[in-house]
Amino acid sequence: MSLSDSQRRVHEWISRYEEGYFHPLTNLARLTEEVGELAREINHRFGEKTKKDDESEGDLAMEMADILFVLICIANREGLDLQTAFDRMMAKVESRDQDRWTLKSENSEK
Question: Are the C-beta atoms of residues 6 and 69 closer than 8 Å to each other?
Fold first, then answer.
């Protein structure tokens, strides 16, 4: 599913409700909360802070999806096209950073 498709799907779901999109500052607070949840899970998995014995394993992909959902809500509310923005960003890094990193040889593992 493209970002455009994802934006459309989120908009169709949000549009079913009278409340609509949250205010930008509310969405920013939500985004911060979701990024914190991702940071906590990454810290538990890869950092020095281990989980308590009674804590269940988190889901990194779902934490990232929560962040993506809130970003899409912000973009939709502000009338931004994330697909176009993402494509522009990739063109920027592909040209700016093309000689910055060491390319893998064709024989190296991926």
Answer: no
